[in-house]
Amino acid sequence: MLWNPLKRQLLKFRPEERIRLQVLDYLILQTRIPSARIAAESPVPSRFSRGRTDLVCYDSRFHPLLLIECKADTVRLGPRTATQSAVYNRFVKAPYLMLTNGLEDAFFHVAKQLEAIDESGYPAEFAPDDPNWHSADPDYWMERGFLPPGLPAAAATTVAHRLALLFHLSDETRSWLSIPFPDRQMPLTHHYLLLSTTGHPNTLIAFTFCAVTPEMAVFSAVANRNKRNIAYFCCSLGKDGAFRDPQFFSEKNDDIPDSEIGMMDDPHAPALPSTFPSGDSNLMELNDFWLSPDDDPVSRDINPIAVQTGLTTELGVRSARRLALILERLLLGT
Predict the structure, then answer these.
(1) For the whole model, what pTM was predicted?
(2) How many CA atoms lie within 13 A of 14 on its CB side?
């Protein structure tokens, strides 16, 4: 279930609802728009249907300021979405429109004609209240279910720094996935980051951290080729701040002729988990990646908060590339 702070009620877990609550969190927590000036799911009269707006923000005189149309992250923003919000705005009459699927945002100003605008043209109320806000704070990731509250402070700080670089500054795609891991009764459902691979056509790697107890998180990674999961890796990050219990699953080799596959074998089912020697170089590098402070140089031609925290787009891109190479070796044996 999902909790809506405006309606103060639990709602069904739907992709579109999750995106709407992401936007609502941003509006309430980071902008100058108080919750008293935000309305969710207001009815819109129509000759054809009984529609509802996703979110409407009002100015200080309670005139409509911004109409927001939210779609699931699997829905591409396009003319159809824009048309729906434009039809609603005939009734709302807000000077600004926003379309979002959680991954992309489109902002428009309604004057004599609809005009797309960038951040410089956003209404002042929509800008972040704290422009120096950043997501390297461990509490941010604990509140969102990535890290357990019982993780040692040093490990939590370092992992949170990496998560901020990867999820917010690497320009890689984020997605909410529900992956049925082998050997697990429940699928691991969480926000994942998708990394491209080198030398493996049509192959992506998805990874995430997920807090499973107050003192332990699970790091999980999956390789997907042509929309089919072919390899899985997971390990735990315990309260001692160390990675433990690595497990690796892979599909049986598709190149083996059918005549060599036993009658009871399923060529598409993952094999039994493989074990790693304690000194495996890939595991050691993965551990260092997450738990060692980053010593990459930080450019000085950026704002002070980025220099202080090491949060730069350049470093985010390098972090994603480095992690992708480690996971390629673990999952794909290269």
Answers:
(1) 0.72
(2) 10
